[in-house]
């Protein structure tokens, strides 16, 4: 069971030796008066596609795209490996074996949704869906936000009117909401919650060296995403100086996606490129912007640490040299004083020895 404009897929697998051929047929009418129409790839205005493989056994898939009410009916998979199976003049020795599947196409059940939420003038909202003329009884329902089921929204109720409350409408809650009714087949409707974009700089400041390239990045959140991005170079008082147009100058290059923009500033100049930049995203609900500070370092900036170390070494050597020079005279005087005493004592000893010898000789 499918809805109008849905797709349907039927699979058929056949085993035999030799490997059988598989055909697809559309059967109309009652059993005694039924008529069959063989289906080929590209039939029904190219809405029918057939994929078949014949490796070890036969497999075939019938794909029906963009279904209409006229596609309702019986589809038959036929298989045969008789050599004369397609010769209309010779009755086949082995009859075609068949397997059937029913495809039933229904009109979409009508779902009335409300309201259209505009974040510019709404701080909260209550979404509602009203299901009319369902094909089968409703066995439950739930809500989704951007394709994900909302917590605590699933129920087994058979109600045809359901609501979902959004307490605060902002870029966090914006997006595509859908109410889903569990019937046969499952039906749903979508409600858009739109707000102006929320633009945030990826980094508040960016540092780069002179003559190098800097990359400034901004991101956007919310729904819908920006359809237009603009960059500005701000003056010292942070008023807008001029808009940067992509491709107008070899210095600037912009790369944009719906949720991100990047500005490349090439061949940086410390005098003209350093400063504040502003990125602005715009969608159908409005605009929002953020700022990034670009700091450009001189090409000699890398030398300052080395020069600082050299200066420290020179100062240290000078201090040691001055200290050594000032303490040298004091140390020399101390050495002279300490060396004279032993000489005097030795002389006195020699004098005594001389007197002793003289007395002995007498």
Automatic annotation (TrEMBL):
UniProt record, GO biological process: cell-cell adhesion
Keywords: Cell membrane, Disulfide bond, Glycoprotein, Immunoglobulin domain, Membrane, Signal, Transmembrane, Transmembrane helix
Subcellular location: Cell membrane
Membrane-spanning intervals of the chain: 302-323
This protein's name: Basigin
GO molecular function: cell adhesion molecule binding
Cited Pfam families: Ig_3 (PF13927)
SMART domains: IG, IGc2
GO CC term (a single one): cell-cell junction
Membrane topology: Single-pass type I membrane protein
Major subcellular location class: membrane
Source superkingdom: Eukaryota
PANTHER family to which the protein is assigned, alphabetical: IRREGULAR CHIASM C-ROUGHEST PROTEIN-RELATED, NEPHRIN
Region of interest called Disordered, as start-end residue ranges on this chain: 331-362
Keyword Glycoprotein: yes
Domain Ig-like stretches: 1-95, 101-192, 197-295
């Amino acid at each position: 069971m499918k809805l109008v404009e849905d797709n349907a897929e039927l699979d058929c697998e056949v085993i035999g030796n030799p490997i059988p051929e598989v055909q697809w047929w559309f059967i109309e009418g009652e059993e005694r008066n039924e008529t069959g129409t063989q289906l080929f790839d590209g039939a029904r205005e190219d809405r029918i596609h057939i994929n078949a493989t014949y490796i070890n056994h036969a497999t075939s898939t019938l794909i029906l795209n963009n279904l209409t009410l006229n596609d309702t009916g019986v589809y038959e998979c036929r298989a045969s490996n008789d050599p004369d199976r397609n010769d209309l003049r010779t009755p086949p020795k082995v009859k075609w074996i068949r397997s059937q599947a029913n495809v039933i196409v229904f009109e979409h059940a009508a779902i009335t949704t409300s309201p259209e939420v505009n974040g510019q003038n709404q701080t909260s909202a209550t979404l509602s869906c009203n299901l009319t003329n369902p094909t089968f009884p409703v066995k439950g329902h739930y809500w989704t936000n951007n394709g994900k089921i909302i917590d605590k929204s699933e129920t087994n109720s058979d109600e045809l009117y359901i609501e979902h409350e959004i307490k605060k409408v902002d870029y966090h809650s914006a997006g595509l909401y859908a109410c889903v009714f569990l019937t046969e087949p499952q039906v749903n409707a979508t409600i858009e919650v739109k707000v102006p974009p929320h633009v945030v700089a990826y980094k508040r400041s960016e540092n780069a060296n002179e003559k190098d390239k800097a990359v400034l990045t901004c991101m956007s959140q919310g729904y819908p995403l920006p359809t237009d991005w603009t960059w500005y170079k701000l003056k010292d008082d942070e008023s807008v100086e001029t808009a940067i147009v992509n491709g107008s100058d070899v210095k600037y290059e912009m790369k944009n996606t719906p949720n991100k923009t990047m500005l490349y500033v090439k061949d940086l100049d410390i005098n003209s490129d350093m400063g504040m930049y502003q990125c602005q995203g715009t969608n159908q609900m409005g605009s929002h912007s953020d700022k990034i500070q670009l700091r450009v370092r001189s090409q000699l900036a890398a030398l300052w640490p080395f020069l600082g170390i050299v200066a420290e070494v020179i100062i240290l050597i000078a201090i040691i040299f001055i200290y050594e020079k000032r303490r040298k005279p004091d140390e020399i005087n101390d050495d002279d004083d300490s060396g004279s005493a032993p000489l005097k004592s030795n002389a006195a000893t020699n004098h005594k020895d001389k007197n002793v010898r003289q007395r002995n000789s007498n």
